[in-house]
């Protein structure tokens, strides 16, 4: 998703539930696709939009999709990380 004119996102990531039937059915937002260019995406907490956070300097690729479970909270204050 990208910011629309007027600074609004087409959808709100904060409104995505953690899943449909927890813990059996969860929703995941992918921030780094498997075997993809090492670009790190993040959800901006103020605008609730997905944006490019950084281009990772390492030539490493993730072997699986890396992301998070919406509306969860880990010890680091961010949503729970996942590899899918």
List the topology elements:
Blueprint: E1 19-21, E2 25-26, E3 29-32, E4 39-43, E5 50-55, E6 66-68, E7 81-83
Antiparallel strand pairs: 1-2, 3-6, 4-5, 6-7
EC number: 3.6.1.1
InterPro entries: Pyrophosphatase, Pyrophosphatase_sf
Keywords: Hydrolase, Magnesium, Metal-binding
Protein described:
The chain is an all-beta fold. The chain has strands at residues 19-21, 25-26, 29-32, 39-43, 50-55, 66-68, 81-83. The strands form 3 sheets. A 3-stranded antiparallel β-sheet has the order 3-6-7, with no helix packed on it. A two-stranded antiparallel ribbon has the order 1-2. Strand 4 (39-43) and strand 5 (50-55) form a beta hairpin. The two termini are 20 Å apart.
Q: Helix proportion of residues, in percent?
A: under 10%
Outline type: globular
Distance between the termini: 20 Å
Helix/strand structural class: mainly beta
Q: How big is the Rg?
A: 14 Å
Biggest sheet, open or closed, and with what strands and sense?
3 strands, antiparallel
Strand order of the largest sheet: 3-6-7
CATH architecture: Alpha-Beta Complex
Counting H and I runs of at least 4 residues, what is the number of helices?
Answer: 0
The CATH class assignment is Alpha Beta
| Overall pLDDT confidence | 84
Number of domains: 1
Under CATH, the topology can be stated as Inorganic Pyrophosphatase
* String of helices and strands: EEEEEEE
Question: Which regions contain 5 or more consecutive residues with pLDDT less than 50?
Answer: none
Tally of strands? 7
Strand content: 25-35%
CATH superfamily: Inorganic pyrophosphatase
């Amino acid at each position: 998703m990208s910011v629309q004119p007027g600074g609004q996102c087409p959808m709100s990531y904060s409104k995505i539930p953690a899943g449909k039937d927890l813990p059996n059915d969860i929703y995941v937002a992918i921030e780094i696709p498997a075997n993809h260019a090492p670009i790190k995406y993040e959800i901006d907490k103020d605008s609730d939009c997905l944006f490019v956070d950084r281009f990772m300097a390492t030539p490493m690729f993730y072997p699986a999709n890396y992301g998070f479970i919406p509306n969860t909270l880990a010890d680091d204050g961010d949503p729970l990380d996942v590899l899918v």
